[in-house]
Inverse folding.
């Protein structure tokens, strides 16, 4: 059964919201989205390997690119930190909202792709469980603040 | 030390039907096992089946994947099996990819990663798939990275055992590689093989060793279905006598045949009915089952030559109660037609049905079809296999009624076609003869172990109401040649064929009466 896009969209939005730092100004939406992708890449790599995870994001990016021009600037880099590169350049060119939407679209595409490959239920399960615990809501912003 | 103070080795149920029996009572807890075999042998499926049968949130399973099959693909395919519960994937069953550590080529890093995850998760089961990627192949570039492999295996085994973990290393190994250190360290070695013979492939499993257990020796066939692996333990040789049972006579459902056998076949015996095509073997077999059902004895019919629906339709046409009995759960027709069947698999299917129904009567229709259904590799030792099958079935106390087709000319007189008469207690033969310009059927009982029986050749007809046994062909000579000659010409008008007779004397009496008229 193909994944329900509203479910994957909701999950992607949750991941981004969890990654958002309250009161962050500037390119907050885009950087939160990029951080959510980074976290998912890191955590899912534990299960399916970094190459497998990167392959999923690469395809998701390619498929979302036509509808989201910021993705032409944005890069996903295997075995690198940050995983999503050139966020600042994309924001400068297209703005925070459009860049955030582009990253979110890539994230949704990746979750949908994973769901098609291994089943939506298992994909959701793996993503939910691989997201850093117990901190999804509290510690992540702290972590980001520390990083900043 | 007294035996009372010995460490108890607990058992882990594998969740693989038949495998625990082969292992001698399940897997020893905390054992370090190797699942070896060629590609496509079922190693990953076996490991997953064991994992999903045993993993719990408190004692999860860690499934380490390496460079072989990409994890995504593995999950995609494995989740097609019914045992794979996606709800526990990520919790009770956790998949961890080791590819980065392996790419680094440092076995210490690999070990550290495994040990770190083990300490963090405290699993009950650990699988490394494929271990061969870590160990490398001798002479290959990856094999060069296998420096310190002995120590790596020793340390890994020690860590996993001290954490009270039952572990499985999966790898593609050839039989000649058994000098590999992992074979020495492993407590258990499972070897999965695929035997190819002509167009047929048969999967076989061998438990090479299991420390602390007495595994069943030999090669055991297994099949992979949507439910995963099912192992069919090799039928043990018949070492004990049959289940003690009273030698009670069981009606065959054919009055004349009961008379010929001295009151019916003996319960718990193996009975073989042989005859050419169309001689009524299946009809008599069905009547044998129906006679039992009338007395409340449930039955199982194993068919090999046609689909159960077709078989049932024909049986139902003869006796509509056949369908009723199936619906009532008193009779089961099991269909065993694949051309890669093993004797063990057939036996398991029959035994399961016998146990399910508490059956007293089993029909195997026919041995000829059974032989064809077997994979070529098993046809070679058909007699031995049949001996084991019949021995195991009769040991349970059921009466086994087998049919066998014989192809014969008039000049070729054989009692059985399969040369398996030694496995049977009772043999009934059917033949066609030419009489008065037409084919006629005759039958005789030629063997009944430990009991007397008629030695007459009796005519019979297969009618809509069943099989009707007629008179003995006493007036004829050379019946077995197929072209009998009338000994007394004056009796020529007396047609003994298919005239129901109360006794063997009946045809002679009828002929005399006619003469008097």
């Amino acid at each position: 059964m193909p994944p329900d896009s509203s479910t994957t969209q909701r999950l992607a939005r949750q991941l981004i919201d969890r990654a958002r730092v309250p009161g962050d100004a500037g390119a907050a939406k885009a950087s939160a989205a990029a951080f959510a992708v980074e976290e998912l890449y890191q955590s899912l790599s534990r299960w399916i390997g970094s190459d497998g995870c990167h392959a999923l994001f690469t395809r998701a990016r390619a498929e979302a690119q036509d509808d989201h021009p910021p993705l032409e600037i944005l890069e996903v880099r295997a075995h690198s930190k940050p995983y999503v590169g050139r966020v600042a350049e994309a924001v400068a060119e297209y703005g925070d909202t459009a860049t955030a939407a582009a990253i979110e679209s890539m994230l949704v595409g990746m979750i949908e792709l994973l769901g098609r490959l291994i089943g939506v239920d298992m994909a959701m399960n793996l993503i939910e469980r691989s997201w850093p615990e117990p901190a999804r809501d509290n510690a992540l912003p702290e972590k980001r603040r520390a990083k900043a | 030390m007294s035996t009372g103070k010995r460490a108890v080795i607990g058992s882990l149920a594998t969740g693989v039907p038949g495998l625990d029996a082969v292992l001698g009572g399940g897997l020893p807890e905390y054992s370090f096992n190797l699942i070896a075999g060629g590609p496509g042998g079922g190693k990953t499926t076996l490991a997953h089946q064991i994992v999903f049968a045993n993993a719990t949130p408190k004692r999860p399973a860690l499934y380490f994947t390496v460079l072989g099959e990409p994890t995504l693909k593995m999950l995609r395919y494995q989740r097609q099996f019914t045992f794979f519960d996606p709800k526990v994937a990520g919790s009770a069953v956790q998949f961890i990819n080791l590819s980065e550590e392996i790419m680094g080529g440092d076995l210490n890093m690999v070990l550290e990663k495994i040990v770190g995850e083990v300490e963090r998760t405290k699993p009950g089961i650990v699988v490394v798939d494929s271990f061969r990627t870590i160990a490398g192949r001798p002479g290959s570039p990856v094999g060069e990275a296998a420096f310190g492999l002995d120590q790596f295996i020793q340390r890994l085994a020690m860590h996993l055992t001290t954490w009270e973990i039952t572990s499985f290393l999966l790898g593609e190994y050839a039989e000649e590689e058994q000098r590999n250190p992992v074979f020495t360290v492993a407590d258990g070695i499972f070897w999965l093989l695929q035997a190819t013979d002509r167009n047929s492939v048969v999967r076989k499993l061998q438990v090479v060793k299991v420390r602390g257990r007495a595994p069943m020796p030999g090669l055991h066939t297994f099949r992979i279905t949507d439910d995963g692996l099912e192992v069919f333990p090799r039928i043990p040789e018949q070492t004990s006598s049959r289940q003690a049972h009273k030698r009670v006579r069981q009606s065959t459902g054919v009055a004349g045949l009961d008379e010929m056998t001295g009151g019916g076949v003996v319960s718990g015996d193996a009975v073989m009915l042989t005859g050419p095509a169309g001689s009524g073997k299946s009809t008599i077999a069905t009547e044998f089952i129906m006679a039992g059902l009338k007395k409340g004895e449930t039955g199982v019919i194993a068919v090999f030559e046609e689909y159960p629906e077709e078989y049932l339709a024909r049986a139902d046409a003869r006796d509509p109660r056949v369908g009723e009995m199936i619906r009532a759960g008193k009779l089961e027709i099991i269909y065993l037609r694949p051309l890669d069947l093993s004797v063990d698999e057939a036996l398991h299917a029959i035994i399961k049905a016998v146990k399910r129904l508490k059956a007293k009567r089993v029909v195997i229709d026919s041995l000829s079809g059974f032989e064809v259904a077997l994979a070529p590799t098993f046809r070679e030792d058909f007699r031995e296999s049949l001996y084991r099958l019949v021995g195991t079935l009769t040991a349970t106390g059921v009466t086994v009624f087998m049919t066998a087709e014989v192809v014969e000319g008039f000049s070729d007189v054989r009692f059985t076609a399969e040369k398996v008469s030694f496995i049977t207690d009772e043999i009934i033969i059917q033949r066609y003869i030419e009489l008065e310009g037409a084919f006629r059927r005759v039958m005789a009982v030629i063997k009944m172990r430990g009991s007397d029986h008629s030695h007459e050749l009796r005519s019979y007809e297969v009618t809509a109401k069943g099989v009707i046994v007629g008179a003995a062909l006493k007036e004829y000579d050379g019946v077995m040649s197929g072209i009998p000659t009338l000994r007394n010409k004056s009796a020529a008008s007396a047609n003994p064929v298919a005239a129901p007779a109360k006794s063997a004397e009946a045809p002679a009496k009828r002929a005399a009466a006619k003469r008097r008229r």
